[in-house]
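Run: sequence + zinc ion -> complex structure.
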Amino acid sequence: MPADKSRTPFSRPRGHSRNAPYTFDGPPVDIILRTADLVDFPVHRTVLEVSCSHFQHKFNTGSLGEEGDVAVKAQSMRTPPVVPMPEDSKTVDALLRYIYPVDPPVIRTVDDAFAVLRAARKYGMTHAIKGTKTIVAELADKEPLRVYAFAAARQWEEEMRVAARAALAFPIMEMYADELEGMSGGAYFRLLDYHRRCAKAATNILSEDTWFQNIIADPTFNWEPAWTSCSNPKCEAVREDGRKDTRPAWFHYYLLGIYQALAARPRPQTAADPQLFQAAIMRAAECGECRAGAPTDLKQFNTLLVQQIDRAVSKVRAQRTNFHDITHYLPTTGWFGGEIGHGCRLAGKQERV
Ligand SMILES: [Zn+2]
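>> structure
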């Protein structure tokens, strides 16, 4: 096929360029960055040199303009050379805001954040990379599925990990984003797999028979909580299997509520939900024996429980799963055995996301 000589490494609109609505100048500028949408940013070579490893290398080796992607050409003796940039003005503006003493960029969308992060990495701009990563993490807290899909499309493992962790705050199985249409089945499976195994690790803290021993094994446990000494028959709980529970009903339902919440949103903060706490305290207040000590004791218990869940979830790593090794099972032991559906035990070659 004959080469299209009219094509350049990146497409540019025709016409004259215009100046950015503001400049990063001050002292006389010595270089102009011209963006793909033909906006000129007058800047200082020194600032670029100390902030961008890409430009530092280009300036030091005198290779600026050798590769076609950065062609430098002074229009006259009085005008600084122009460096065409493949990025648009919004992206370049954000990059420059990280290296000049001006307000930091306001980046509101996942698309923009990834465009800036990609450019920051390309030009080796440490401050811009750090700042944009923070923004990506904040966006992931709101739109984990979108951020995960964007990162997966670029095979950016760090951002995939950040988004996968943020997704623990959501019932991810019930969520949809348009970006899912373009995400590979494997990437989506690994996200769900991580979420599911975090849910298993978190709920196991409560479903295993040894859960309470784990709690009281904590060195800070040095009290006898209100619910261990209650003899009020009205406080008695009956389990799903008909057996009487050794703990008051209000405490049983408090744990059951946390268990169900963790199954959908498996992160430590879920167990600290103040609504679940308040509901338990209101129930405990109906018992004359539990009423006085419940608020303080439950608070202390909850702190230890959250720490346990944090430790358990933090140990979970994403895996690449061999489908032939999936074994389905139904939990049958523990307090909530059989109460919350089923899970998948996954085995296979371990790989961090
Ligand atoms: Zn009681």
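>> summary
Residues 230, 232, 235, 248, 287, 289-290 surround zinc ion (CB under 6 Å). Residues 18-142 form a domain with the Potassium Channel Kv1.1; Chain A fold (CATH 3.30.710.10).
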